[in-house]
Amino acid sequence: MPGIRIPLALLGLALAPCGHAQVVWNVSFDASASVLTAPERAQVTSHLQEAGRRWAAAMGVTAPRSIEIEVRVASVPTANGSSVTSSFVGVINGRNTFEQGVASELRTGIDPNAGEPDGFVIFGLAYLRNELWFDPDPVARIAPVPADRTDAMSVALHEIGHVIGYNGWADLQTGVPPPTFWSTFDRWMQPGAPTLFTGPRAVRRWGGAPDLTTGNNKHWGNPVAGLPAPARQPVPQVQWRDGRPAPQPACRMLSLSAPPPGSALDRLRLQGASLLDELMNGVVFFRGNRYDITPLDRATLDDLDLILDRLLRSGFQ
User: Fold this and answer.
1) pTM for the complete prediction?
2) Beta carbons of 201 and 262 less than 8 angstroms apart
3) Among candidate residues 305, 303, 293, the one with its CA nearest the CA of residue 209
4) Peptide bond before 194: cis, by omega within 30 degrees of 0?
5) Going by C-beta distance under 8 Å and a sequence separation of 6 or more, which residues neighbour residue 92?
6) What is the DSSP string of 21-61?
7) What does each C-alpha distance from 209 to 166, 188, 274, 297 come to in angstroms?
């Protein structure tokens, strides 16, 4: 069968990275982060900026944008991330529908909360210092990840994923949305145990509706034998501001040593449980492993109407 010829100009446009460089990710630190040393701040900054660059490239953002991410330190076991506000996009199936504020700014260029940070990432101090491994070159990502540490770049990518799209207000256990509003992510939930994600591009990419983490359902997957269930998340009261619901960070990823090759857990993980290998899984990051934006993430962005580049929507992913 003869190969398909792609015009060089079109191929160059599809592959050229220069347009994505116009998205600037500014990282600041609030008072709670004053405990961080200068080297720690530099590491956090470089990792969040590269995570933002990768997500903006996955969306196909080519116009100039400036996104402000504030880093906070709090008494949390791992890390959390969220946009600061949301933006109304319309009425879908009788519910007011909102997207994450950072997604809206990347998509439209309009800052929904001018003068304030657009999103935030919270780190637990012990998690940052004793569990995370910061890559000496988070762009190249070629240095070996220590077997006893969680890759900080994977965590940064995961949290920026929540800042942009993996967020909403549906019940964390059941997937049932509020009666009058939901997020662009919530709208594709099929409530149940487990809740399923029915976005058509994600379903087509996965080969069926992928399951969301019960109790942590802004994530993919559920535990297999040998893995503990995620800690039950409290259901926070939705806060409203200027007629818009505020996003709610809800993330509690376990960090575990990778199962030995050939072990029962390793076999189970590889037999139909590969959602646990997704960047946005809600169960575990295995130490010593790297995670990155996947085809399922890109399909989900498309379901959230966040793939902005026509070539990416046509399959140049």
Assistant:
1) 0.90
2) no
3) 303
4) yes
5) 182, 187
6) GGEEEEEEE-GGGGGS-HHHHHHHHHHHHHHHHHHHHHHT-
7) 16, 10, 14, 13
Four-CA torsion 307, 180, 88, 56, nearest 10 degrees: -30
What DSSP letter does each residue of the chain carry, written as one string? -PPPP--HHHHHHHH--GGGGGEEEEEEE-GGGGGS-HHHHHHHHHHHHHHHHHHHHHHT--S-EEEEEEEEEES-SSEEEEES-EEEEEEETTEEEEEEHHHHHHHHS--TTTTS-SEEEEEEHHHHHHTEE--S-TTT--SPPPTTSEEHHHHHHHHHHHHHTS---S-TTT-PPPSSEEETTGGGEE-SSS-EE--HHHHHHHTS-PBBPTTS-SSB--PPTTSPPPPPPP-PPPPEETTEEPP------EEEEPPPTTSHHHHHHHSS-GGGGSTTBSSEEEET------HHHHHHHHHTT----HHHHTT--
* Residue entry with tokens 């449980």: 273
The tens digit of pLDDT for each residue in 123-171 reads 999 999 999 999 999 999 999 999 999 999 999 999 999 999 999 999 9
Note the pLDDT of residue 235.
Answer: 66
CA pseudo-torsion sign 81, 190, 198, 212: positive
* pLDDT tens-place string over residues 266-293: 665 555 447 988 999 999 999 999 999 9
The domain locations on the chain are: 20-227+239-313
- Rounded Cα–Cα distance for residues 98 and 184 (Å): 6
Report residue 159 as tokens: 């949290």
Return the bridge partners of 73, or none: 123
179: left (phi over 0), alpha (psi -120 to 50) or beta: alpha
From the list 140, 160, 141, 130, the residue with the least C-alpha distance to 297 is: 160
